Amino acid sequence: MGGDLLASTSPKTSTCHLRDPAQASYTLGGYLEAVLITRDHQGRPKTHGGDLFRAQLLGPDLKAGVPGDVKDLENGTYLLSLPLLWAGQAQGQVQLIHSSEAVRVLRGIWRDQWATVDFMGYFQGPTGYEEIVTCNVNPLLIREEGSACHYRDEDSGPKPSGFYHQNMWHSLSCSSRSFSTADSVLGCLAGHIVHMMGDSTLQQWWEYLCDTVPSLKPVGLHATCQTGPLMAMDTTQGIVLHWRAHRWPLHSLRTPVASLHSVARELEGLAGGPRTVVVLSLGAHFTTSPPSIFVQQLAGIRAAVVNRLLQAAFADLRVAFVDAWEMTSSLALLDSIHPRRHVIQNELDFLLSYVCPT
């Protein structure tokens, strides 16, 4: 085990240098390129790729940041491309998330055990007898008969999407504006029904809107905050705001299975219309399961969206993407699955800019 560790990629012995000679200044809109050479814990050069790195260009004084692209040359060397999107000082940063050796271990766990965490199923009979068993998602059993505890759900380039400057997200794909006051949010959402389905990212959105807009009053549905459903209303402005968690895999406290709804089936049950806003967020809870589970979920959701597009009520349906990952990981902040309030505000500004472009 010790030998394997010494042979793994080390962030201390690996080195990084600019690809070209340093310049006194660089062209706005261009790229800063660097070469990363990996070594193991004994300082020996690595001869293969497969490491997971994260690169950023940061401007701490300007509260600016943008993710960079990492290209694996598959020989122990990586090419970093950092977009230059603001005027002023900037500094590059690269972080080793997982060595190639750790990646192989994780893939082995996914292949052999189907999960890096265990989900527990609680079965209780009418007499109070309870049985607890492990209930992990097994992609090999999808659409096949399994045990009573098997989870089944039949429905189921380097250019960054934007960057931060002065703590405000600037999208590179479309125009956006700020909704920093309760009145501006109300003016946009008046008469709308907003359905948020997914993980705690959208729960943070729901909570932010309720905190920012005093007239949005939560309605007690006697549900757990971790899974929902949660609802808030402004009866004067005709706003209804829903949130509920997606189905398994979902890391939560003990929750009735009936409370966890399929996103695809929820979409199929919506009437739709020009006053309906649907927001989906999936990803974080799937990181402990094989990627095939996430792909299957997305395929089911895609089919449901296509079905909606074929109906007259959704004939003019527009779809946009909020890159919450880049908006969360672009600044020099400690990693947190639940980002700070100003990140949530920027994510919601992007959503509201889409709902109310003018």
Description:
By secondary structure, the protein is an alpha+beta fold. The protein folds into 2 domains: 2-103, Immunoglobulin-like; 162-355, no CATH class. The chain has 8 helices and 16 strands. The chain has helices spanning 2-6, 100-113, 182-189, 200-212, 263-268, 291-309, 324-329, 341-355; strands at residues 9-18, 31-40, 52-59, 64-67, 69-72, 77-83, 91-98, 120-124, 130-134, 162-165, 168-171, 193-198, 217-219, 230-234, 239-245, 276-281. A hairpin with a 2-residue loop joins strand 10 and strand 11. The chain is flat.
Task: Provide a concise account of the structure shown.
The chain has 8 helices and 16 strands. With 358 residues, the chain is an alpha+beta fold.
The helix fraction, in percent, is: 10-25%
Strand-residue proportion:
25-35%
The neighbouring-strand order within the major sheet is 13-14-15-12-16
H/E series, N to C? HEEEEEEEHEEEEHEHEEEHEHHH
Q: Major sheet, described briefly?
A: 5 strands, mixed
Distance between the termini: 60 Å
What is the number of beta strands?
A: 16
Work out the count of structural domains: 2
Average residue pLDDT:
83
Structural class: alpha+beta
Which regions are unreliable across 5 or more consecutive residues at pLDDT < 50?
142-148, 151-156
- Mind telling me the C-alpha Rg? 23 Å
Tally of separate helices: 8
Q: Tell me the overall shape.
A: flat
Pfam families: NXPE4_C
Protein name: NXPE family member 3
